[in-house]
Amino acid sequence: MEVFIIVLILLALIGLSNVVHRFIPFIPVPLIQIALGALLVIAPIGLHLHMEPELFFLLFIAPLLYNDGMHAPRGELWRLRVPILLLALGLVFATVCIVGYSVHWLIPSIPLAAAFGLAAILSPTDAVAVSSLSKRIHLPARMKQLLEGEALMNDASGLVAFKFAIAAMVTGYFSLTAASWSFVVIAVGGLVVGAVMAVLITIVRKLLRRAGLEDETMHMLLQILTPFLIYLIAEEVGVSGILAAVAGGLLHAVENERMAFTMPNLKNVSDPTWSVILFILNGLVFVLLGLQIPDVSRTVFVNPAIDNGSAIGFAILIYVMLLALRFVWTLLFSSGGRWFGNAEQKRPSFRMLMLTSLSGVRGAITLAAAFSIPLFLENGDPFPQRDLILFLASSVILISLLAASIFLPLLAKKTSASDTAEKERLERAWQLEVMASAVKILQNATTEENEAAVNSVIGDYKLMMQQLAQRGGSMRSLMQARRDDAEVRLLALNIERNYVNNRLESGQIGREEADSYLSMLEQLELLLANRTSVGKIMVKSIWRRLKKGASMLTARSKSALSASEPDRSELRALKMQCTQAVVNELSARCEQVRDEAAEGVLDHYRHMLDRLRRFTLGSQRRDQEFVEHRRELHWIAVQAERDAVQKLFEQGDISRELAAILRRMIRNREASQIELYEMS
Questions:
Q1: Residue 155: closest CA among 71, 213, 242
Q2: What domains appear along the chain, each with residue ranges and CATH number?
């Protein structure tokens, strides 16, 4: 029961971290999660969770790296194979030698073999940390692929070097020949075992399908179990389970591309399922990291034999050495510009080299490996300076994350905005891409019953996309036009409200009919209002509701939920009258002064009036089914647009400002749909 409660608390912290990030977006989510995990340990609730390295690698690293392998661009990884291997192998072993000797020289109490072990676990970058940061930072595409490819491969080299360094420390014996041969066997063996297991699981899935077992849920379960099976079998054989998981992910990516045609519904189940799993696992990695840091730091700070200031200084100095070594290594082996896809440039710029160096963040893999350091040597003596090694490893992790979070956005940010036309073109392109994602979702949702409605909604989107593509204005000018349009729309809603209240006071309509209509106007006001006006509108809305009384509110709610067809007809008739009142007033306004926003809203109301008239003249049953299908499809499309904006923002493709602009435009379209469908 206690473990279950701890898991619930950790999951709640993951959700809380994303809420906090909405208010302080300049701090990356991983750092917020580490801080929340640390606060949970510091809080006087007695929560302490010991990290089991073997379980950590199996439960978190295996599925995360398997998924990274599945989504890694295979062609780009092959083209970047030379720089990836230079970073994943060459830089790792250079780090072990140079940083290992340096640590032993700086801190003589750490034996040379133990210093090599510390350097080995600090040498690999963390794939989870790299992908989490790259979602928020605008790194060049080629650099993202290089860093992700490096992080996929360098874990094995770093952990193998760590294994032999610790073995040499514990036993007092080390053989370079044996270590080199063992590394080849473990690395190549891991890739082979992962590939073989992936092929076998693919064959099993095909046999199940041939036997008629095509249930998507069962195949999804097999897909979830795959990385754990591959990792466990590889480790049991004695090879790298990490590389086996990566190889399995790469091969299953090919099979999943084929399954998209043979089992299209599986992809619709797989994508959201993996999205939830990865969201939880990524969050737990950093929360668990935060849980370990206070205890590690406390052990060092309370130890009188260790000077606290010196320990912190050593951690900073080790990170600077790692950063400098990565910078120099990249500089030496990047002549010709081939690392970054630019064969004409002889050497990458200083900015690009600093981006590559700072992007080498360390993560939970480093700390998990540090916790696997044994407590005692073979002769029974305590492992020398184990607590200090754990402190230095955790400190370097934090420093690397902080440095990347602070300096990468500054370096990755585009320094010049001289090409304004190109920037505006890209802004419009993002909005078109968001709309295109909605069209794609609608196409996948087509059935025999709703085909006509799907074509109609897709036609609406294609018309909007065509109009946007033909406009020459920038996204900012479009946004200004949207704001002007929203102001006039709010004015039009006020005209409608005054018309309804006048009809109610004169006794021409009933209270329930007026309340239903005014409720719809309140929804539209909230959607159309900007952030500064939402609070004001909500206060006015609450005041109006209080004046009506609780009993009247309940009666109105029941009426709205169970409105009969004659009630709908009365509401449509009232909507036509209100629409005509707005048309009359805005027409008079446009005759006096030219107002593009007022003319646009006037066209909107005229179009709505025409739709309402045609609805009342057609076959009600057939039209009602068509309208219901359109209503449902429009909500699906709007949600698809929101999901697309959120995904683009999380990937770092669009800024927070542009995401807000796109969401605002989506809300405006949603308001128009509510206005049309409430009266249908």
A1: 242
A2: 2-412 (1.20.1530.20), 420-494+568-677 (no CATH)
Amino acid at position 178, single letter: A
What whole-number percentage of the chain has pLDDT above 90?
Answer: 8
CB-CB neighbours of 174 under 10 Å? 14
Asked if 322 and 406 count as a contact pair (C-beta separation under 8 A), the reply is no
Looking at 43-111, list the stretches that DSSP marks H as alpha helix, in order from N- to C-terminal side.
53-56, 62-71, 74-79, 81-85, 92-106
* Residue pair 100/119 in contact by the 8 Å Cβ criterion: yes
The residue behind tokens 């009247």 is: 552
Answer with the residue of higher pLDDT: 338 or 607.
607
Residues 6 or more apart whose Cβ sits within 8 Å of residue 316:
395, 399
Identify the CA nearest to 667 among candidates 464, 539, 528: 528
Average pLDDT for 459-466: 72
**Do 479 and 424 contact (CB within 8 A), yes or no?**
no
CB crowding 568-597: b at 16 or more within 10 Å, else e: bebbbebbbebbebbbebbeeeeeeeeeeb
Name the β-bridge partners of 376: 382
E strand segments, 92-180? none
Residue with tokens 């998924």: 67
List, as one string, the DSSP characters of 656-672. Answer: HHHHHHHHHHHHHHHHH
Q: Is the pLDDT of residue 193 over 80?
A: yes
| Residue 388: C-alpha distances to residues 54, 189, 300, 315 (Å) | 22, 34, 6, 10
The set of residues, in sequence order, having a beta carbon less than 8 Å from that of 657 and lying 6+ positions away, is none
Give phi and psi for 138, each to the nearest 5.
Answer: -80, 75
Backbone angles phi, psi at 173, to 5 degrees: -125, 140
Contacts of 108 (CB under 8 A, 6+ apart): none
CA quadruple 430, 435, 438, 444: dihedral positive or negative? Answer: negative
Three-state DSSP class for residue 153:
helix
Chain centroid to CA 513: 44
**Beta carbons of 129 and 362 less than 8 angstroms apart:** yes
Q: Could you tell me the pTM of the whole model?
A: 0.66
Phi, psi of 382 (to 5 degrees): -60, 145
Alpha-carbon span 79 to 237, nearest angstrom: 31
A 10 A CB-CB count for 623 gives 15
Please compute the mean of the pLDDT values over residues 286-309 and round it to a whole number: 84
First to last CA, the chain: 52
Highest mean pLDDT pick, 127-131, 502-506, 545-549: 502-506
Q: Can you tell me the distance from the alpha carbon of 558 to that of 504, in angstroms, rounded to the nearest whole number?
A: 20
